[in-house]
Amino acid sequence: MSTEKYDRQRFLGALINIVAFRMRHKFDLRLREYGLDISVWPVLACLWEQDGVPQARIGELLGVPGYAMSRGVDRLEGAGLVTRRSDPENRRVRRVFLTEAGRAIESTLVPLANAVNEEMLAPLAPAQQNALLALLRQLVEHTDGSSGIQSPA
Predict the structure, then answer these.
(1) Short-list 43, 32, 29, 37, CA closest to 116
(2) pLDDT digits (tens, 9 = 90+) for 35-77
């Protein structure tokens, strides 16, 4: 039996979760001003990178189950930001496309995301910010695929 005690201040997962929770909360408050919330942000970001992606593929890229992806797309569709269409080569595949409103809101929401990102990194010097992001990218790259979930990067 180990005599070591759990110290969440030295546990990577705990620290990342705390920072991620606080960052999500800050960003969620800003998104709510536009009738959205944090749950739909990853879908929009994915579609701004590549429009017309199959709905199931978005879920794979984001590492979320199909039912959660479907709910997010439903909400975006209800808000008039996306539309779903059958793939012409395989009607069972539903592709998700941004509407004009979905494309237009990018210029409003991306600056909000950038502001939250800058706010969270502000306590660190620029060199520390760059080092932190490089280290996190290295961890993402190292763990990519080991869980069966692909990173959205």
Answers:
(1) 29
(2) 999 999 999 999 999 999 999 999 888 888 878 888 999 999 9
